[in-house]
Design a protein that fits this description.
Elements (H helix, E strand, L loop, with lengths): L19 E6 L6 H15 L3 E6 L2 H7 L4 E2 L14 E6 L15 E5 L6 H6 L13 E5 L6 H6 L3 E3 L9 E5 L16 H7 L2 H8 L9 E5 L7 H15 L3 E5 L4 H11 L7 E5 L5 H10 L2 E5 L2 H9 L3 E4 L7 H14 L1 H4 L4 H9 L16 H16 L4 H12 L4
C-alpha cells in the first residue's frame, strides 16, 4: 500500500517562466486519450508554455486538430527563449526515435504510455560544458474518484533500471478533490457557457426541426451500450407524458443501430426523433452538451466536459472484463455525485448502473424525467463546487515549479 502523499503546495506562486513540455499520447479508445492530451497541451499553452504533443495516430490527430502545426527538428537550444504554443510529432511506439527531438524541461507520459527508449536515455542529466538537468518526468494517470488516487498523487518512482535508470518519475492523478491534480478546465470556460446561444447553434448545425417543448438528449457511448433498451424507454415515457424526445447521436456506429431500431418501431417516431450528427470538433462537442437537457457521455474527456456543462448526465465508463468499472462508478457516485449532500435524485442511480451493464434494465419503469429539476440543480451545484478548485494545467505548473532545476 502506498503511503499517504501530501498534496502539492498550491500556495506557491506560479513562476514567470516558460518551460518546454513533451506530452506523449498513445491512442487506445479512438478519442478519449488524445482528447485529454490535446486539451492539456492547449491549456498549458494558454498559460504561456511551449508544448510538443507526441501522438501515435497521425490520422486522428490531423482530424481532431487540423490547425495544429507539426514540430520542427526539436525544441530550441537551452539558451534560446521557448516559443509559446503547441506543435505535434507523429510517434510510432516500438520504433525508436532518431533523437532529433531533444527532451524539454518537462516530460509527461499520459496513462503510462512509455516514451521511446532513446528519448528516455537523452533525459539523463549531462555534465560538462553543455551540462543539462534532467527533465521533470510525470506519469499522468487516468481519472478516478477511488481512494487510492489521493494516496498516490504526487508520489515519486525512482527508476532503478532500464533506459530511464537514475531518473525519477512522478505519479500525477487528475481528480475531484483538493488532494489531487484537479480537472482540465480552460480559462473563461464557464463564462462562455453562460453566454452560449443554444438555439442559434442548433440552427447553424442543421440539427433537424426543433419541436415545441421537446427534450434534447445527446448520446456518445461505447459500442456495448444498451442503446435499443434506452430508446425503448425514452419513446415509451414520451408517449405517456406527451413530451417528445430529440435524440442527438454523435458520429459513429451507434447511428446505424438507432436508425434500425426506429425502422423496426415506426410507432415510436412521433415521440422519439433522431438526428445523426456529423463529426464534431472538441469545441462543438461542448456546444452540443450545452444545448441538451440530458447528456449521455463516455470515458474521461467527455465526462469532464459534461461536468462543466452543468446539465444532467449519465456516464458510461470504459468497460473492463474483470468488472473493475463497477467500483470506479460507485466511487464517483460517492465522491462527486454525493446524493445525500447535493440533492441528486436517488431514482437516477439505478439507471446509471443499468447503462453500464451493472444492473438489469428497468423495463417496467418510465425514464426519470420527473427528477430532472433536482437533477439539474445538483449538476450545477457539482459544477460550481469543482470549479472552485484549481484546474489541472495550473496545478501541474506549480508541481513542476517545485521540482525543476533553477534557471
Amino acid at each position: 500500500m502506498h503511503p499517504t502523499a501530501a498534496p502539492p503546495d498550491l500556495s506557491v506562486a506560479q513562476p514567470a517562466r516558460t518551460w518546454r513540455w513533451d506530452v506523449f499520447c498513445r491512442v487506445v479508445d479512438n478519442y478519449g486519450d488524445l482528447g485529454v492530451c490535446r486539451r492539456l497541451a492547449l491549456n498549458l499553452a494558454a498559460l504561456g508554455q511551449c508544448v510538443r504533443l507526441w501522438v501515435d495516430d497521425a490520422d486522428l490527430m490531423q482530424r481532431m486538430a487540423p490547425d495544429m502545426a507539426a514540430a520542427d527538428d526539436g525544441h530550441q537550444a537551452r539558451d534560446e527563449p521557448p516559443a509559446v504554443g503547441v506543435s505535434w510529432v507523429h510517434w510510432r511506439p516500438g520504433h525508436d526515435t532518431d533523437c532529433a527531438h531533444r527532451p524539454g524541461d518537462v516530460v509527461i507520459e499520459a496513462f503510462g504510455c512509455d516514451p521511446p527508449q532513446a528519448f528516455l536515455e537523452q533525459m539523463r542529466p549531462h555534465t560538462g560544458p553543455t551540462a543539462t538537468a534532467a527533465p521533470v518526468w510525470i506519469n499522468l494517470e487516468y481519472l478516478s474518484a477511488q481512494a487510492y488516487v489521493e494516496r498516490s498523487h504526487g508520489l515519486p518512482s525512482p527508476q532503478l533500471s532500464g533506459p530511464g535508470r537514475g531518473l525519477t518519475k512522478w505519479f500525477y492523478y487528475p481528480g475531484f478533490t483538493e488532494r489531487t491534480g484537479g480537472l482540465l478546465r480552460e480559462g473563461g470556460l464557464l463564462e462562455r457557457r453562460r453566454r452560449f446561444d443554444a438555439r442559434a447553434w442548433l440552427q447553424g448545425l442543421g440539427a433537424g426541426a426543433q419541436r415545441q417543448g421537446e427534450r434534447r438528449v445527446s448520446l456518445f457511448a461505447y459500442p456495448n451500450a444498451p442503446l435499443e433498451a434506452l430508446m425503448g424507454s425514452l419513446a415509451h415515457t414520451a408517449q405517456v407524458d406527451g413530451t417528445p424526445v430529440h435524440l442527438m447521436l454523435t458520429h459513429g456506429p451507434l447511428q446505424d443501430r438507432a436508425r434500425q431500431w426506429l425502422k423496426a418501431h415506426p410507432d415510436a417516431t412521433p415521440a422519439l426523433c433522431l438526428t445523426e450528427l456529423p463529426w464534431l470538433s472538441s469545441e462543438d462537442y461542448d456546444h452540443l452538451l450545452w444545448s441538451c437537457d440530458l447528456n449521455f457521455v463516455r470515458g474521461e474527456d467527455s465526462l469532464v466536459r459534461a461536468l462543466w456543462a452543468g446539465v444532467p448526465y449519465v456516464w458510461q465508463l470504459y468497460p473492463q472484463e474483470d468488472g473493475a468499472h463497477a467500483a470506479k462508478l460507485q466511487a464517483f457516485w460517492d465522491v462527486v455525485v454525493t446524493p445525500q449532500e447535493h440533492g441528486w435524485p436517488g431514482a437516477v442511480h439505478h439507471w446509471w448502473r443499468a447503462w453500464n451493464g451493472l444492473a438489469p434494465w428497468p423495463m417496467a419503469d418510465s425514464f426519470p424525467w420527473p427528477s430532472q429539476p433536482a437533477w439539474q440543480k445538483a449538476s450545477v451545484d457539482t459544477r460550481d463546487r469543482l470549479a472552485a478548485q484549481p484546474p489541472l494545467a495550473e496545478t501541474l505548473l506549480r508541481f513542476v515549479a517545485q521540482r525543476s532545476a533553477p534557471g
